[in-house]
Specification:
Layout lengths: L1 H14 L3 E5 L6 E5 H12 L5 E4 L3 H17 L4 E3 L5 E3 L1 H6 L3 H9 L4 H10 L2 E8 L6 E7 L6 H11 L13 H10 L20 H4 L2 H15 L4 H4 L3 H14 L2 E4 L2 E5 L10 H18 L11
Parallel strand pairs: 6-8
Antiparallel strand pairs: 1-2, 3-9, 4-5, 6-7, 8-9
Helix pairs in contact: 3-5, 3-12, 7-12, 10-12, 10-13
Length: 304
Amino acid sequence: MLFRSLMSSLSSLRLNKNIIITEADKNMGIVVMDTQQYIDEGLRQLNDEYTYQSTSMTANRILALFKRQREILDKHNQLFEQVSNNSKQLSSHAKYILQLHGDFEKALQTSNTEEEKSLLVHKYAAKFYLLMKMHKTPVVGRPIVSTVHSATYFASKYLDKVLQPLLPLIPSYIQSSQHLIYQLEASSSPLYLPDDCVILCADIESLYPNIPTDIGLQLVEKAVIELGENFSEFRTPGFVKFVIELLKFVLKSNFFLFGSKWFHQIKGTAMGTPVAVPFACLFVYAVEKSALCQLAQEPILYKR
């Protein structure tokens, strides 16, 4: 009886178009808020013309995004691999990155009406949503773009896989605050802390949206060349150039849907695309490396 009552209540909430049930930022639980308030906050952010541009999307434009990835793979000799003297097949990189391409092209060929094409475009759209910052006054949303099943998704996942192994090589890198505690506890020699030392915590405000893409790509390329020396794949001629060009494509092709409106992010990095995390980590590494070199005295311990 209790279960039926609970399911009935949940179903009623789900069908209520006047409210949005979403997540709070910082894992602070569930948020129930007025639908119009949620929409207004989303549009307030998306109306920032320096960061987002209103646009439109067609099935042919999505197809062009898939084809551009194939061109990048081909340009850097990553599209095919030799099977025998007389035959070749798609490389493992290409199979992974282009795995949605064939399905989309087939679906487009069998879409005979504009309504079918519109549904196809919606199916392959990245979606914009907000994590509500309940710890802020006034309450605002953290913008997230879910790229799952979008044209750039598997290219971004591939880049994430390639770049993630570089992060532990960054001297300052830690996975979390708890990771720092583990490192200190596991150290063979105790950390000497003078009586006059201080602990300083700092944060970078709105890191992802504030990374300038072109400068970020230049700094990340330098970081990848430096850290990639430890991996044979990055020592392969032209591989770094391939990674950076594919990364540029992903970062600059952030097209997404909010409600029925399409937008294109023209500034910063979208939270939600898989490669955003290693891209931001490598960018900050390049910045902090330069900054630390300019200090008169290095910190006793610096972790990020």
